[in-house]
User: What shape does this take?
Amino acid sequence: MRLHYAYGTSYCVTKMKKHLSFLWLFLLATIISSSGQTLKPKSIDTDGIVYSMAQSGDTVFLGGSFSMLGFNIGPAALLSTTSDVPDRTFPIVEGFVYVSIPDGSGGWYLGGSFSYEVAGETRSSLAHVLPNHTFDPGFDAQPDRDVQKLILSGSTLYTSGSFTQIGGENRNYLAALSASTGKATTWAPQPDNYVADIELYESTLFVSGSFAQIGGKTQIEGQNRIIIAALSTSTGKATEWTLQLDGGISAMALDGNILYLGGGFTQMEGQNRQNLAAVDLLSGALTPFAPKVDNYVNDLSISGATLYAAGDFSRINGILRPFLAAMNTTTGQVSSWNPHPNGPVYQVALSGTTLYAVGNFDRIGSHRRPYVAAISLSTGQIVNWTPEPNFFVYSVTVWGNAVLVGGSFTFLKTTYRDNLAAYSASTGKVLSWKPGAYGTYIYIPFKPPITGRVNVVRVQGSTVYVGGDFHYLGGQPRLNIGALSRTSGLATPWDPGANGKVFALEVDGATIYAGGTFTRIGGKSRHYVAALENTSGTASPWNPILDNTVHALAVNNSTIFVGGSFTKVGQQDRGSLAAFKKTGGFLLSWNPLANGRVYALALDSSLVYAGGSFTQVGGQNRSYVAALEMKKGLATVWNPNLNDTVFALMQGQGYLFAGGSFSRAGEQPVSNFAMLDTSMGAAVGNYPQFNKPVHALHYHSASSTLHTGGQFTFIGDAARSYLASFNVSPNQSASDQVITFHPKGDRTLLEDPVTLEATASSGLPVLFSVVSGPATILGNLLTFTSAGTVVVQASQPGNKNFNPAPVVVRSIVVRKAKATIQLDKMTTLYNGSVQAPTFTTSPANLPVTLTFDGSTTLPVNAGGYEVVATVNTATYQGSASGFFVIRKVRQQLRVPTIPDLTVGGTPYKIPPTAANGLPVLVEVISGQVKIENGFLIPIGPGGGCIAFSQPGDANYLPSGKIQRCFTIHPAEGITHEVWASIPSSLVDIHQLPSTPPTSTSTITSFMAPSNLGDNYFARVRAYLLVPISGEYRFHLTADDRAEVRLSPDEDPSKMARIAYLRRATKAGRYHDFASQQSELIYLEAGRRYYIEAVMREFRFKDHLSVAWTKPNGTMEVIPGANLIPFTSTPSLEVMAAAARQIPPVPEVFLDNFTASPNPFSDKVTISFSLANDEEVRLEMYTFQGQLVKTLHVGKAEAGKVNRYEFESGLHANGVYICRITVAGKSILKRLLLHR
Assistant: This one.
């Protein structure tokens, strides 16, 4: 069983909302008593207007524009486990109901997309129905969109839906409300997307959906969205608990600490779970429960060790179980229970031995059960419980023996009939009479049993005559007129066929009189009125020839009376009324001459009652209804003086019943219906208050029953849709009376006093008084003194003829007068100080409070701020909102022209900041140049360009890029030094003479001039630039002795020999001796390396050149483009290294200080051991002296091998220095990182 009361719709409901639905009013089964008419409780409803009715025996025949009959109860119906007939006292909502839960005290909460009326207000989408089946006026949640799920826990109502505001607060998709007031609590997880389902477990609310954030928890970039979250019911914060799955969860059910999950997924926590799974909430682990469901699961419910699943699936574990199945909660084994619905099931509810299911099906097994069914838990067979809704049911909830269903339906116990129907007057049951249906409903595309509408129905014996606007009737083509069998509903052969609408029929023996808009009927030309033979349907010779429509007919023993909108009969003037002699059919002199249309006629022994849209008739002012002398056509003194059109008239019990669209009879307020005294014309008795026009009346004298039809949907406070019946009896002394008190809606201060309007059905004056609230009353004028809720009551104490009326109370919410606020200057530029928009108020000079994104602090920084301006005084209240924007300021850079540069020359100092103090970004666009420590350093000749930009910040826009180009001149050459006349005894090239060179020249590549002489020393030195980063091999050729030395940077003191010769080689021969070639050396582009070659010439030929093999495998003499003249002035790089004060300690190789592997690509292990306990510091530096990592600081024990690892990580390739300091002495070791 579910904990608490958690009910809702599955994902399917969202899809089904797209279907069209009729939105009719809910039908209450109350009985309204009045002197003269008692509303019969067994009245049924239609879904469209009833224009005509006739009763024969116990059968009432209806004609109109409708498609179904039944109980019109709206989208929520309260049934019971023992009865499928709705409780007609349950209140009405208009729209869709997606969820319902009991309040635990006999009431209900309803959620969906609907509206309803309470306390004179229209509210929406979430309602509390009290145990007495009235809406709770104190519960006012007012969500701005629909509500899908509800859970009641104590005094808190958890709700989810597509709303963003509810309970007076901003709450996205999920909220906690006060169960008594509907106001939102502070609990606000604020998910960013629609919530699929909610389930409560102790102090945790589980929420499923697809979220990027919820309860302060945010989706991790690169990972799946949050599908399910666990929220604290006290804080709304999401716990760390979650599940990883590849689909959605639309259903949850709890069994102790086991949470069952259904939806559309195939993987959960890395394990195979196909649309159904279970999680142990104590351990957080999936249970072994893993049935394989082949499609979506929409709902789950648990009874004992059985889990019931509803959805869109057809098989579970390969076993055929369409849409509804039962399985073991531990093993997932499917039971033999198999109801076999023929469509998706949205929701289920359990009660005792019965399961209630709702969904998009119309059969359970072989039995018809549209949209809702009750199924035995033991057999899987249907229970005899058939509500028969006319459209979708989305939710079902059972509480005790009450069953509440919600959906988009409007009718229960639905019977489909097209514009014609018959029902039992005694039981209210719709009869099987179904014209053209042959006992079962047959749908013929474009040819339904009867199309259009029926305007008039008359019965004679076994035949029902029908007129209207249609083309098919009783299964046969019939044009606007036809006859049906009273028993079968099939069309008889009678087929006069009219080429226009038929509004009136009267049966008189063997003659059928017809009136309408036709000009041909019965096979002959007949203008607007005709007499037809009841056997052949042929028009009789009678042919009056009217000039316009006939709406009404009445026939007595000698005369045919005709009413309509005509002005002539033949060549005779007649104003909408005429009379003809039955014998011979000639026009009589009777000519009341009405100045408007006549829609209804009724006959008394000597009078003709006429109703319509006229205001003059029979020579007198008579508004809309009149009594005319049958002989002369003069109006009698009888004058009810109605104030609008009459559509129907009927006599009975000494009264003339009138139906139409009027609201007064003389000085007596009425509502679309009046029971008129036939002697004086006064409206008498208490009147049913029809909310819309009455079009049809039929009085059945044998049962004293008045049948009414029309456009109405309410009679007083009782819901009656288009059809109602009354027991009619003469006036009684001391009759009951009721008050109709028209609500006034909300009001504001400073308005004129409100005129209260209420009428008593007795016609007696109504008294008003203030029950509570800030108001005074004088007569019927209500004056408000301050804001608040004013409760006013209307009463009528009665007299000798009428009992006191029940008091009627109305509430009026008085709000403060509205103030308007105009916000101006909503856009400005950042200036470093606080800013705000300006405003004006109406009335002027009212105090205004401004908030920016909810804070009263004025903004300084650029950005967009939601600004709300509020006026809240004792009298005025108002607000305005907008978006206040502080725009970022544009910025410009002023960059000077860059002078030409020379390779090896003075670097260019780059401007440090923009004018606003923000740092300037500089990037190289082209050329052999680098940027280092704020200087532009040329490293090769040619053209170059750099770009200056400033990306901006919170208050400044990015600057545009400014490009500056310049020329880089090549170096003038590299230094070639010669010491001549060297004694032959000096042969060591490691020590050059201490005297200045004999000559110094410049050369353009690393090839010295050859055959300069004998017995001299020579040196070529420069700074080396490599074109690309990579491994280089150097080659030496010389005559006689020579060697090449290279520094890891531009500091000559760090140089080391990399190649040498002890014997001469021929020029250009680099591979005679192994010592001529260096090892592969990794060098980085953009850096300078000091390089020199030293040579000792004895005699004969002499030459010297240094070449390299580049990373791409090409070999060449090092060109001048990659050489910069040596200067003794330290470069920026050398000065920076010196500033870091790393002592240039020579590398010392010790057995107890090792690094392996070296070179390394991933990591290197450094180890050392000591003879004594010592304080040790072990550090890793770049080759330029920047500290990268401290590996160890502290005491190291004697005799222990200490090992530390240095990982390459994101470090660049190159040479690194590992320094160990022991007892004040530092030892360095070079390491090469090469990937």
User: Anything to note?
Assistant: Confidence is low (pLDDT under 50) at residues 1-36, 436-450, 1129-1151. The radius of gyration is 50 Å.
